[in-house]
């Protein structure tokens, strides 16, 4: 842990910020050997008067290398912070939404936590890292950020960890997710202007002692006859299927789901919207639910996977898991 202090403002004592670096594009530069971008240097925080900064770097990884175990390390670090008013996590964008949601489900702290990163690296003239990092720090220290759980900020837009998703592979405004941002931070002449469009909502918290369950994701497509299902079901403790539309599958999947005693969660591959088990044809959502499948509500497949992984790691039964997903309170 490193610590630096900016001059305190005359109006009060310094605010205290924990800055946690984990790698990603925001810390990346072209490799000297010409092998492509790699995480190399944690980005500096633009000067914020009156802010004392604690810096932590538990690991430095590209986000495709992040695992639930790394997320758990972050959860432990954030949960153990003392004497801070807010925390910022810099993270690669590919799995940022998964880390944010994992923390949303498991992090018990009153300290506002904001995740951010960048889409462009430090040697590009349009590097978006410094602006996102400044926004995240100001947002984490803002009093209206209390009680909201982990947040994500990119390009001034503030997102809830439950619904945020990466919607573009390369654009600077790469994050979205229905129904959209829950707030906005802009830099005005008198400092940051923070506006939230929704109030804080309750969230249940889970505390798995270890993440020892295995959950796999399968992706539905036209003409799928269940290829890969039997192998995944055999080696996993639970499955999530990114299904079609409101949660429908080809008819060949229905007997496969009927035959398992493991939890099978039905999400949707569609960009937005809930799973609604309304269709009664073979493989339709209503028949899948009668066969024992569990609708994922509005969670996408990779977030449903994290919730199922946590519940299985806690030793929850299939009826208990069904009740959690049915409640829709994530």
TrEMBL record:
PANTHER family: 60 KDA LYSOPHOSPHOLIPASE, L-ASPARAGINASE. InterPro entries: AsnASE_II, Asp/glu_Ase-like_sf, Asparaginase/glutaminase-like, Asparaginase/glutaminase_AS1, Asparaginase/glutaminase_AS2, Asparaginase_C, L-asparaginase_C, L-asparaginase_N. It comes from the Bacteria. Residues 214-325 form the Asparaginase/glutaminase C-terminal domain. This is Asparaginase. The active site is at residues 25, 93. It comes from Deinococcus sonorensis KR-87. Substrate binds at residues 63, 93-94. Belongs to the asparaginase 1 family. GO terms for molecular function: asparaginase activity. The keyword Hydrolase applies. Residues 25-67 are annotated as: Disordered. Residues 16-186 form the L-asparaginase N-terminal domain. GO terms for biological process: asparagine metabolic process. Keywords: Hydrolase. It holds the Pfam family Asparaginase.
């Amino acid at each position: 842990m490193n610590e630096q202090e900016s001059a305190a403002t005359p109006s009060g004592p310094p605010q205290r910020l924990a800055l946690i670096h984990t790698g990603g594009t925001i810390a990346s530069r072209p490799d000297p050997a010409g092998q492509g971008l790699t995480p190399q240097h944690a980005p500096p925080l633009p000067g914020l008067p009156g802010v004392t900064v604690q810096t932590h770097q538990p690991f430095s990884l590209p986000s495709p290398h992040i695992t639930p175990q790394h997320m758990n390390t972050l959860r432990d670090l954030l949960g153990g912070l003392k004497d801070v008013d807010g925390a910022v996590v810099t993270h690669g964008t590919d799995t940022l939404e998964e880390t944010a949601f994992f923390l949303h489900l498991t992090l018990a702290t009153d300290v506002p936590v904001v995740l951010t990163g960048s889409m462009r690296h430090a040697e590009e003239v349009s590097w978006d890292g410094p602006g996102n990092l400044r926004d995240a720090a100001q947002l984490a220290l803002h009093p209206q950020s209390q009680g909201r759980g982990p947040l994500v900020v990119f390009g001034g837009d503030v997102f809830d960890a439950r619904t945020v998703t990466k919607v573009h592979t390369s654009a600077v405004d790469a994050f979205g997710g229905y129904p959209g941002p829950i707030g906005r931070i802009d830099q005005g002449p008198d400092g940051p202007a923070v506006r939230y469009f929704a109030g804080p909502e309750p969230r249940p918290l889970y505390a798995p002692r270890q993440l020892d369950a295995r959950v796999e994701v399968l992706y539905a497509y036209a003409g799928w006859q269940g290829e890969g299902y039997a192998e995944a079901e055999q080696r996993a403790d639970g499955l999530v299927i990114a299904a079609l539309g409101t949660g429908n599958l080809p008819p060949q999947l229905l007997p496969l789901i009927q035959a398992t005693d493991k939890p099978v969660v039905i999400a949707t591959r569609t960009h937005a919207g809930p799973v609604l088990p309304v269709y009664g044809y073979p493989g339709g959502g209503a028949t899948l639910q009668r066969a024992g499948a569990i609708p994922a509500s509005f969670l996408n497949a990779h977030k449903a996977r994290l919730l199922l992984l946590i519940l299985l790691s806690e030793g929850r039964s299939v009826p208990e898991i069904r009740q959690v997903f049915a409640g829709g309170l994530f």
